[in-house]
Amino acid sequence: MELWFTEKQTKNFGITAKIKRTYVTEQTEFQKLDMVETEEFGNMLILDGMVMTTQKDEFVYHEMVAHVPLFTHPNPRQVLVVGGGDGGVIREVLKHPSVQKATLVEIDGKVIEYSKQYLPEIAGELENSRVEVKVDDGFMHIAMSENQYDVIMVDSTEPVGPAAKLFEKGFYEGISKALKEDGIFVAQTDNPWFTPELISQVYKDVSEIFPITRLYTANIPTYPSGLWTFTIGSKQYDPLEVNEERFHDIETKYWTKELHKAAFALPKFVADLIK
């Protein structure tokens, strides 16, 4: 018998993957968590029926969340990752030697536990001495932080369940307060095909708080529509004006110094969302 998983990305559209085996099916305190092995994408983490990451394409998302803000900031030392319990963003953050400490705040400890077990190439740096892992509410952590971080990365699920409040203007205001005077933050902001209103609203909210606000994209095949957006808010530094000397060599599969700026070149229908 063949077993297939379908993520219903809208009421009328979904993507399907053939499953080799199921490792975990568990209702955690916060969400339904599944860890499966797929024929096409390797091991896959699914939360509340939505694909979070896979072994085959995870590098795109994690590299683009981490390297765009970290190469934009001239001296990122204190970094916060909200969500991201699989550890992929942390892995990429640690490729930057200027980073003295990377703090991960993940609300669901089970995500961390099972990622270490079934996604070791993604979660492998969570034990690094430069990393502090906190199983806590990222929204509250931000609210209690002030002038603390150089870069904040919001690696959240789609805006449902416990992640919904991570897409509110008040959260972005809290991020601004938690950042130092020249701080930068980035958040994943879903896709322009199925959630254009979300992108427009987030961009509007962020641009009312941060003097420099930019939208960029990446291709992630297991995410809804394959075209994914990220919104960056910066107090001083423009990702489009990074000096070439800032780009040091790191090992990547997707991000390049050329792509750093090219990712901000938007298709017209996407650019129209943020006019």
Which terms would index this structure?
single chain, 275 residues, alpha/beta, Spermidine Synthase, Chain: A, domain 2, Rossmann fold, 2 domains, five-stranded antiparallel sheet, spermidine biosynthesis, transferase, Polyamine aminopropyltransferase, Spermidine_synt_N_sf, Spermi_synthase
How does the SSE layout of this entry go?
Layout: E1 3-8, E2 14-27, E3 32-38, E4 42-47, E5 50-54, H1 58-72, E6 78-83, H2 88-93, E7 101-106, H3 109-118, H4 120-123, E8 131-135, H5 138-143, E9 149-155, H6 169-178, E10 179-188, H7 196-207, E11 212-219, E12 227-234, H8 257-262, H9 268-271
Parallel strand pairs: 6-7, 6-9, 7-8, 9-10
Antiparallel strand pairs: 1-2, 2-3, 3-4, 4-5, 10-12, 11-12
Characterization of the model:
The structure is a single chain. It is built from 9 helices and 12 strands. It is an alpha/beta fold. A hairpin with a 3-residue loop joins strand 3 and strand 4. The radius of gyration is 18 Å and the shape is globular.
What structural category do the secondary elements indicate?
alpha/beta
Number of helices: 9
Question: Helicity level, as a percent range?
Answer: 25-40%
Q: Tell me the span between the first and last alpha carbons.
A: 50 Å
Q: Spatial order of the strands in the main sheet? A: 8-7-6-9-10-12-11
Gyration radius from CA atoms, angstroms: 18 Å
Let me know the largest β-sheet: 7 strands, mixed
CATH class designation of the largest domain:
Alpha Beta
What is the CATH T-level topology of the largest domain? Rossmann fold
CATH architecture of the largest domain: 3-Layer(aba) Sandwich
The gross shape turns out to be: globular
Q: Give the full name of the CATH homologous superfamily of the largest domain.
A: Vaccinia Virus protein VP39
Elements, N to C (H/E): EEEEEHEHEHHEHEHEHEEHH
Low-confidence segments: none
The average pLDDT is: 95
Give the amount of beta strand, in percent.
25-35%
Pathway: Amine and polyamine biosynthesis; spermidine biosynthesis; spermidine from putrescine: step 1/1
Protein name: Polyamine aminopropyltransferase
Subunit structure: Homodimer or homotetramer.
GO molecular function, one term: spermidine synthase activity
